[in-house]
Design brief:
The chain is an alpha+beta fold. Helix content is 39%, strand content 27%. The strands form seven sheets. The chain has a six-stranded mixed sheet, with no helix packed on it. It has a four-stranded antiparallel sheet with strand order 3-2-1-25. Strand 8 and strand 9 (359-367) form a beta hairpin. The two termini are 53 Å apart.
Length: 575
Amino acid sequence: MPIAAFLAYARVSRRTGMISPAGWAMVAAALLTVPAGYFFQHTTHQAGFEALLAAATAGITIGFWRSMRSDSARVPLIAVAAALTLVVVRQTMEIEVVLQAALVELRSLEATVAAGGAVICAACIACAWTQIARRFSMDALHHATIAFVVVFLIQALIYAFHESAEARVLPWSDVLHPASEPYGPEGAYGRGISLLLFALPLATALAIAVRDRIGRISVGAKGPVYASAGFLFLACVALMAAEGDGARAAREAASSSPSPAAMSSVTASPHLVFRHTGVDANYNMMTVAPLDRPTAGLGAGLRCERVSFAAGRGICLQADRGVFTSYKAVLIDRALTAIGSMKLDGSPSRSRVAPDGRVGAFTVFVSGHAYAASGFSTRTTLVDMASGDALGDLEQFTTWRNGVRFKAADFNFWGVTFTRDSNVFYASLGTGGKTYLLKGDLALRKLTVLADNVECPSISPDDRLIVFKRRVGSAANAWRLYVMDLATLTARPLAAETQFVDDQPEWLDSGHVLYAIQRPSCVSPRGKLADRRSLKDRSAKAFALRPVWLAFPPPLHSALSPDVFLSPWLFALSL
């Protein structure tokens, strides 16, 4: 769209000398997109890189705006081409990363079609603007281009601010980053701004065209400005109203919980407790379904970013994505109703409840959104499930390695899993570019390093084995599942699963491990938890994109926690 707006203005304003640099920029962008995408995907400073590019784009936009105000402005053509190349590559490199992940890494037809369709749609809109612009007068297109420049500048400044906060280069970044999340590229308001890039210039041009055709509609020289401002105001009101409607729908859906009798009939037998991710009125709804009929789910009335449950107690991590996003952990009882809550310091990552239901744990990101991101920081808290009191942050525990106190400023903890005695737990520690398996003692507030290259452990019901993920390559999703004997600390891969699995698995029993994947074709059919046909209908709704947990009546309680896959399938793998 930026190139389309530039070309349309250059043609109508008869600055035809600017058209050639735009062509050079498109060729240069085509050549630079793949290497730029590779660099972006592998850099350890993604957020800082995005912030720098957004700030540069804002500067270029201001320069273009100033050139529009002066017919005598002369800019070297090579500078114009370089500026346009940067603006385009900033967008195409991220598109390349998404398409490469969907087509090559995930090999997902759904993801590829979605990403490719979005690119084609954006290209069609840009082409449409170049054709529509030919029909407007110079005055109409001039004001329409100004409208585009204003929205584009606002968007670039917001992105620069948001990514700078994520890169932790701003004061109070821990507060500013989550507060600006709704206005970021994936936020509700951020997506609305992207729509305004086309809608506001079009509305401005149409308003001036109407003014020119019907003199009595004219409101003077400031009419186009007033029209643009009015449309922008109405668009903002519409976005806020849409957000309010979404929140209202969430409250209405939450208030329509099933009857206690209906819920009891499901929870009386082995059942699933999961976060519904179908894009409908039940999005994010904590849902309960019989294990043998996962499509027969009931909404439990709470909306969760993460959920875990065991022995009649559970944790639901929630996000209130308003103008300022806030997070909280809601404690739930056997009836899956809220009994207490506590504020969270960042976006939810993981949650687990001990098999006896006495202690729970949750991890949040206080900076960044993924463990692969540069400069991420986590906070893992243990909580008394009965009283709701925090029992401590793992960074407050003492860590020991080889009998010596172990401490570093970049410690990050996540992936807690509890033994049958909830006083003892295991977790992951990340520091110095390495990950370690820890054994924790809650009473002693002590953590002991047992092994390295272990992430997201999950302990078996007999406390004898752990299954975990291990990085086996440089690709972002190059994770394989391994199982370790805690007596000898020897590990072996789960040979029956040959594709990458980025997940914190759970155990069905002492001989079967549960996990979710996005494609079933490479998985051994042994130990399959449910019939593929029954799961296929549910996969896009119940098992997509975010954690899913299993809960069984006492004494068995376990949890399945797939992370960010497009269409996960649920399997039990025989060890």
